[in-house]
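Input structure tokens:
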């Protein structure tokens, strides 16, 4: 029964849970066997908590079915940046190697109230910094399509767990593409939602909004299912939004279709690998089969790099300056660089960056007055060699710093828009590529409906889970 369960989609699994055809314990048993079989090759879920999960499953089973929440006992891995009570939560840093929090983040509490059962922590780079999943605590997470390649990041462990059948749905987070990059590299779906859509416990800044919590899954409907369970306001997160009247799963299944969409290879701000550009352009053009006009266009996002670099550095300083003072020798060079850059940021630079963000957001909103959606590559390259810490250059173009290659994603972040990476094709090396689908703020329903329609046209839903393809073992 293990293989049968692992290969079913999350919507089907939750339906079976609610009909009593399977139990949460059946699912946990299947996951434990699958993790034992495949995680050694990819290192996606380094921390397991099956005892805790089975105790929560016991408590959930004592409730009437109608009180078991939207997930009804669906297991969910949590990215190792979010606290889970009683579970080792390291943030990928040697500083927190032995940290076991007593209280869960409100995101975890919310998921558990909706019948989600936490059974693992997914691997992430130190403090989520850098779109390549490796750290000094647990090591590297490898891409299951070719284990000599990067899984991207920072939600790399979550994406790999999905791709290999060690999860049906997964939690992730995204500042500069940390849900979208690994979704693209691993052939799964990842969405950065609207600011405040998913409540979480503020740590260093009450109103911080560059980073957002979000959902990942193997297909669009499964992602919508998890997003429904994650959403809802909470008083401990003052910028969190109420749950929308229409569920995201209903939105994914709605007949809405875009009439006019924009395609941009590079948003006018970045170099893009030619093969990735060609694959994603071909997928974008298929919106014409849904009756949409597809035009090449993008708003003016020319201030993106300066804006994001300053705001990101400021965030790192606010969140990590104390760690730099007390534990400099335990931090990776990229994190040190970002914190120090934030410490040198002047008030004039910060004022300019905040003003730029207002302008970028306004331009994007004006753009969506003409277009229903904006389409781009989700990442500017295919999965790169695992030994590379980041993408340093493309076709002779050298990126300014370790995060600059993610501009096609972080441009959407600073413009305050939701965005999804949807699997859309493969490179000549049979490595996945994702299409980024962007909508105006609070436009997740629009993205989900369009993405589900395109997913049906492309016909590549169900290509995961896969067994890891070990290269160079």
């Amino acid at each position: 029964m293990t293989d049968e369960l692992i290969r079913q989609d999350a919507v089907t699994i939750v339906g079976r849970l609610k009909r009593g055809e399977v139990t949460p314990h059946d699912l946990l048993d299947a996951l434990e066997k699958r993790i034992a079989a495949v995680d050694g090759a990819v290192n996606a879920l380094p921390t397991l908590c099956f005892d805790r999960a089975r105790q929560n499953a016991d408590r959930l089973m004592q409730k009437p079915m109608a009180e078991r929440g939207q997930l009804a006992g669906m297991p969910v891995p949590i990215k190792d940046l979010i606290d889970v009570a009683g579970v080792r939560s390291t943030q990928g840093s040697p500083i927190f190697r032995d940290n076991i929090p007593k209280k869960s983040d409100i995101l975890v509490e919310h998921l558990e109230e909706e019948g989600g059962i936490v059974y693992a922590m997914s691997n992430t780079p130190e403090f989520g910094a850098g779109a390549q999943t490796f750290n000094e605590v647990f090591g590297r997470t490898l891409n299951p399509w070719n284990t000599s390649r990067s899984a991207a990041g920072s939600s790399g462990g979550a994406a790999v767990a999905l791709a290999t059948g060690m999860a049906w749905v997964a939690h992730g987070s995204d500042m500069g593409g940390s849900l979208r990059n690994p979704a693209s590299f691993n052939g799964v779906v990842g969405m950065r939602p609207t600011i405040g859509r998913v409540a979480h416990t503020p740590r260093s800044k009450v109103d911080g909004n560059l980073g957002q919590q979000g959902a990942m899954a193997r297909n669009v409907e499964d992602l919508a299912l998890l997003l429904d369970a994650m959403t809802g306001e909470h008083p401990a997160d003052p910028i969190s939004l109420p749950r929308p009247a229409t569920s995201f799963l209903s939105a994914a299944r709605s007949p809405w279709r875009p009439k006019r969409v924009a395609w941009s290879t590079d948003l006018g701000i970045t170099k893009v690998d030619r093969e990735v550009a060609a694959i994603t352009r071909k997928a974008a053009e298929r919106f014409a089969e849904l009756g949409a006009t597809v035009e090449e266009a993008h708003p003016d996002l020319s201030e993106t790099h300066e804006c994001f670099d300053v705001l990101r550095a400021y965030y790192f300083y606010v969140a990590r300056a104390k760690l730099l003072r007390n534990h400099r020798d335990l931090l990776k060079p990229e994190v040190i660089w970002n914190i120090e850059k934030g410490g040198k940021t002047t008030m004039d630079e910060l004022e300019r960056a905040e003003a730029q963000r207002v302008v970028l957001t306004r331009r994007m909103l004006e753009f969506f007055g003409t277009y229903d959606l904006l389409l781009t590559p989700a990442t500017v390259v295919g999965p790169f060699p695992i030994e590379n810490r980041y993408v340093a250059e493309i076709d002779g173009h050298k990126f300014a710093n370790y995060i600059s290659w993610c501009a096609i994603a972080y441009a959407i972040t600073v413009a305050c828009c939701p965005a999804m990476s949807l699997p859309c094709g493969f490179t000549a090396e049979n490595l996945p590529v994702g299409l980024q689908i962007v909508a105006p703020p609070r436009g997740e329903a629009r993205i989900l409906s369009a993405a589900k329609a395109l997913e049906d046209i492309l016909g590549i839903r169900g290509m995961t889970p896969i067994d890891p393809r070990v290269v160079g073992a």
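The radius of gyration is 20 Å. The first helix runs from residue 2 to 7.
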